[in-house]
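Predict the 3D structure for this chain.
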Amino acid sequence: MNNTDNNATPRYNDPARQKELLEKYDKESVTRTPKQKSVALFITCLAIFYSLFHLFITYNPLPELLQRAAHVSIGLALIFLIYPAREHSDRQHIPYIDWILMVASFASLGYIWIEYQEIMTSRGGIPNIWDIVFAIMTVILVIEAARRIMGWMLPILGLIFLAYPFISHFSWMPDRLLTRPYSVSDIFGQMYLKTEGLYSSAIGASVTFIFLFILFGAFLSKSGMGKLFNDLAMALAGHKQGGPAKVAVISSGFMGSINGTAVANVVGTGAFTIPLMKKVGYQKNFAGAVEASASVGGQILPPIMGASAFIMAETTGVSYGTIALAAVLPALLYYLGVISQVHFRAGRDNLKGLPKSDLPRIKEVLKQRGHLLIPIVALVIFLFQSIPVSYAAVYTIILTIIVANLRKTTRMGIKQILEAFADGAKQSLSVMAACAVVGLIIGVVSLTSFGSVMTSYIMNVGSGNLFLTLFFTMIASMILGMGLPSIPAYIITATMAAPALAHFDVPIIVAHMFVFYFGLFANITPPVALAAFAGAGIAGGDPMKTGFQALKLSLAGFIVPFLFVYNPAMLMIDTTNVTLNARDFALPPIWSIISITITAIVGILALGAAVEGYFKTSISWIWRLFLGIGALLMIIPEAKTDLIGIAMVCISVAINIMQARKENLLSPKAGS
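Done. Predicted structure below.
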């Protein structure tokens, strides 16, 4: 461990340095800071209004098209004021063109608002020339806004889909992609005047509850929830073998579940955890990878799952309670896989924890900030009581304000509350823009037969074999999810890839959970592993090496989805009998859940030891292979494979313990 590496990391504790790194890997962080106070105040007031608007429509809903159009238009206006057209543009002044784009964004809403009755009644769904003009203008605004806030990847995908109906009738198109001709009126009427285009279910989910949960996360952050998670993780695991890495896994998992933004979580939490990991001796690429794997995994962790659980509930028609329960065991196995590799790496390299005297005590942490957990517990109770998701979000926001004021260290005054409203609005903009572009994709899929074509291609490549179809669905999901936040990644994969699995009678919740996992893990899979690259930036490591380390740490996450397809009991629900009521889901036999849980846990631990080549002492490559095969057999939820796997794992462990005793690494008394 050289001194250069150690000295390279602490600079990211400086907020300016954190912002520098965020801007490098996360377009969402490239924002303006207007020099004129009046302009800054206007943007803040508009952001606060945006948040209050969503609270208002929760209890006083507008017609579906109007409230979705308002959500998009106000969000677009904020994007053009906050995000420069180019990274190196002047960030202290807003050019005239962006003020014009802001006005155009409001004009798009104003037109729908004024013409709403005509659109819904008199025209019979046939757009006139002005409808087309405003539709084209709005699509251009959405593409440009998404480019500014997310880069080119998703806008290009949206434009490719938008181009398809214009060319889908040409004779040179492949037979399966041929359709009838579509006019400009057909295409843009679908995009602008219906709830199956720009204002699709993706935007519906964004306006109804995604925004509210992002706002909830902003209030939690303002109250000091991040410090609570960090201190609690330090108190629980900081003194253990390889403690700082375990702290990173625990704290990043909790924060990732709430904020749903992997790169920002890596930078925010990693600025604290990565220097500690390097200090106790973890290699820099490994330290960055631990933070990336833990941050991405937070989005599969209940109760909030980065708000993706609510999108899944909306898309599948399965209740939130059922989805949250189904996600528990796979998420825990994922984190167990990461922690086991961290633990065995620490044992192999003899990495100790931090001195207990330097760590906070659990009792003190809970005394100072433990009350901040009350809103999260309340949220889970609200949702399992079948209280509407949007209402539950509003209740927990109010409860957060009340609970935070119970102690001076977490108290929020009027200024902090207004800042939370503004921060929540600004943090929601990337999701809004992504959902709007995804709406273009959904609109084209609804208008044409492209969705069934995609399903057919995956089926053909899979040759009617479930495993091959799962494999190619995994590849498709990871490609579609590259460089995207978890929510739009899930929506795209659910639209394009999940239907292929229905032909094999895979239950809908299982199919959607499968594509959700792999769309998400694109963030730690080279070549576009943005979360891993951000971790490498903090650690001073190599981005690609860090990406492959993160891939290895996340190995359990690539195995578990295949397992719950073949044995859905791993999701702890009877997938043949899921209903819309969270209190009515049926459990599979308890013995089935217990046996799957035990064998999967032992298998994941054994797999971690095999990957790192260490249990009580180093493991030779032949025994690593033997142990790895036994681990995989235990993870596969079948009685025969479990028995063979148990035997192989027990033999490997016993031999390793005996070898450790011979090397005087483990005394007979300690091993008994």
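The chain has a mean pLDDT of 85.
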